[in-house]
Amino acid sequence: MTDLAVSRPVTAKPALDVSSDAAKARIRARYRAERRFRFYGIAALVVTTLFLAMLLVDIVSKGLPVFKAHSLVLDVAVTQDAIDPAGKRDAATIRAADLAPVMRDALKSAVPGPLGRLGDRTLVRLLSIGAADDLVADLLRNPALIGSTIRTRLLLSDDADIYLKAKGAVTSRRGDGTITPDAKSGAVAIAASGPAFAVDLARIKAVMVERARVLETEAARLDRSGGAAVSDKVADLRREAAELLGRARDPAGEETLDTRLPSLLLSINGGLVKVEKLKADSAVGTALLPLSAASASSDWSVVTYATPAGDRKITDLEIALLEHLRATGKVEAHFNTRFFTSGDSREPELAGIRGALSGTAWTMLVTLVLCVPIGVLAAIYLEEFAPKNRWTDIVEVNINNLAAVPSIVFGLLGLAVFLNFFDLPRSAPLVGGLVLALLVLPTIIIASRAALKSVPPSIKEAALGVGASHQQAVFHHVLPSAVPGIMTGTIIGMAHALGETAPLLLIGMVAFIVDVPQAITDASTVLPVQVYLWSDLPEPAFQEKTAGAIIVMLMFLFVMNAAAIMLRRRFERRW
Amino acid sequence: MTTLYFVIMVALVPVAFWAARRRAFAVVEGRPGVLHSLPTYHGLLVAVIVFIPMLVVFALGTPAVGRLAEARAVAALPSDVAADLLRRSAVMREVANVASGNHAGDPAPGIRAAADSLVATRDAGHLAVLVLGLAVAAAAFAFAYRRIAPAFRARNHFERFVRVVLMACAAIAILTTIGIVFSVVFETYRFFFDPALKGRPTVSEFLFGTEWNPQAAMRADQGDIRTAFGFVPLLTGTLLITAIAIAVAGPLGLFSAIYLAEYASPRLRASVKPILEILAGIPTVVLGFFAALTVAPLIRGWGESFGLDVSSESALAAGLVMGMMIIPFISSLSDDVINAVPQSLRDGAYALGSTKSETIRRVVLPAALPGIVSAFMLAVSRAVGETMIVVMAAGLAAKLTFNPLDAVTTITVQIKTILVGDQEFDSAKTLAAFALGFVLFFVTLMLNVIALQIVRRYREQYD
Description:
The complex is a heterodimer. By secondary structure, chain A is an alpha+beta fold. Chain A contains 21 helices and eleven strands. Chain A folds into three domains: about 70-165, no CATH class; about 170-305, no CATH class; about 355-570, MetI-like fold (Orthogonal Bundle). Helices cover about 60% and strands about 10% of the residues of chain A. In chain A, a hairpin with a 5-residue loop joins β4 and β5 (about 185-190). Chain B is mostly helical. Chain B folds into two domains: about 1-150, no CATH class; about 230-460, MetI-like (MetI-like fold), CATH 1.10.3720. Chain B is built from 16 helices and two strands. In chain B, α4 packs across α5 (about 110-145) and α8 (about 230-265) crosses α11. Chains A and B meet through α2, α9, α13, α14 and α15 of A and α6, α8, α9, α10 and α11 of B.
């Protein structure tokens, strides 16, 4: 201090510099830093919100189509011979009857024919394996319908359903000029009066150029990752790309449409021709739907399906049939009730979440019955009765740590103790509920303790003052005041348990279970595990189901959390 | 039969309560003031005294009857079947099916006889348990009922019982921990030291081995694939994904917390907090689906457009989404610690002329540092133990790499992969999962204990 005063006299102290340019620049820099810092905070919040929005939009856009399903509405002639030749009219006969021929006849009459064997088989494949279910249900309800023609809904297969749900997959262009087919069915050659197909040919060539580019990129990537093992493959890719480019550069050349190029269908004279070879002024193809006449027509259109046949599961013939059925008003979109009323299935269009929902209900019941009383009583003990010593300290630390133990470790506990040691049934809601109860117990204890602690001591003291015992004061006065807080904590804990998956995988709740569980010892699965199971399956329709199941699960969570918030707002008192 | 027992028990307990309550009124001729305890307490005490023995008889009797019935059924089987353990368990399953009426078609006569003996023994046993339970309940009731007297301290006795129940409930938390520790430690011990176990590794092979291939231990005839239990690739995979997650969630969570605690108006706070809560409440299986089906293809597509070779199960996708999962976690914990920094420290900094961001960077954050460190440690422990996101979005092959675009596997993925499906508790493969569980439990426990200790110290500093 004195040193300072001696070496630097007071008068030599630099004046406070706030007006020079350097000082102003410093201030500006500091304010810039301030704004930058603020911006980082806002950016972090925005990014987080965007993450959440992306997630929700993605799930909802993937999952919403699941609530819609497509069926064919057809007049089915349910003949006595086909269903019930003996005229018994009882449930067993109706259930055992083979309805496939009846449905096939109804389908055939709905499309122009004859389609040939392949066509007939494709036609039947459009329907789901469970298509007859609704028809059987109708007949069971009213056996008198046997022998008459009834209008009924036949569920379409998952591929057909996905095709019908996709928008803009097919584009249609009205043709100019006159074209003349030379046959009504089978191989058809079409001649045009002018360059009627020039537009389509140009589009195909553009696709080929694009495809060549993709192949080049792939070849370059493989080349970089290197090795002699891939050099043949690289050469193949390059050759294919060069060939494609060569074909594409010749604007007048004839083009063969293979499965790696878009499908072109010519709609003419009430029929549909799949184009196999295309020139600007002529085309060769096969009739998918027979033409009414082999005569020239100026009323025609070109239908293009941009996804190459090699990249999709649905064939051109199926598309032709579906489009015809749709144009004649036979396809009906309706709410997918089956998604909520049936259990799991290997067929995507038949699979539903009923089994998983019941499994979740049973599991949650076991969890609730176990963890609420135990959690609340443990909290009461620790908060009100436990002596403050090392033991209660250990219990407290232990509960805090238990709340942070990874959930999969609880699965190991369930596997080793409940399944292996106590020999409880695998895959059962009983064990699932037990494991989840242990998992959420710390949450409920911590929340209940906080609720009990927030009740002012004066309430207990007043009760003790008028002669209540300690337990009477706690159970009659403190606990009722803490109930809203305890319930909020319980709901949050149960919401956590509802979404928990990992420990249930280890105790066998991942089995493929078709039946809806009826008791806590039946094999079952739960909603989040069903999500996991479906997400693993390759069919695109199951992806849709997965997202749909997620939407249902998020709805439940949303309702539970909203209830917790409402409880907190309405009942929680500030003392 | 079990249902009947429960129905009788549930019916008898209130009856005992009312009878004892009336008796309490009767012994003092309707003047409850004379009683030491309220009549209700006399009733509760008797009800408890009837309930407990009945429950004990049931809990001990029912499994005993089950064992006995099984033993009798085995005795009724042909002797060659009964001697062969493997065949016996298969036959016993069939017997159980026949006994419960689920068997389709006509069973073999030997099985039919065993099932009949099973059913007969079981029915007789259940009846015996029921009779015993009723007898015990009657005796207990008579004993307790006769003790009702004006001076009898029923409330004190009942409250002592309640206290024991409360203590038992609190002890369940401890029992859970003991259960976890025992189950993982016991199986881990067998994994390393059980001489009967084929293909078990030594501890150092496990800890320092760089190859992980448990599948080969499944069958003896797959001799050409080498079994390996080297833990290192799993550790690097777990650390890689955790590091990516923290790199995402750390800055985002911390800056969100700073903004919410220091800058945001109460209205903004009230509208942003729910967003973070929603994110925190989304089940991890949903995030896993998002990671596997949306984020991973997206990253793969971007990578390819830059000419990078991205695996379809890249660590980056799993890590990114896991980061999303822990943003709310870091943000809410950091928010708490920042709010706990006393206002006087900020005021001091403002008085010296600092801007708000200077105050935060030079004063608030250093003061809150221990709490923030512990928040990060808890986040790491959460990321290490997270299962569903990595199960769905990360790979299965154990690869020793630090390339975030490559597929890696983690400890939790391996536990899940090994234990889903049928397990045999005598194969090294199954036990390996428990050893991994032990490592996981131990690591997360350490992180939590240290983090909670830091928080505790920190709170004491400013309280």
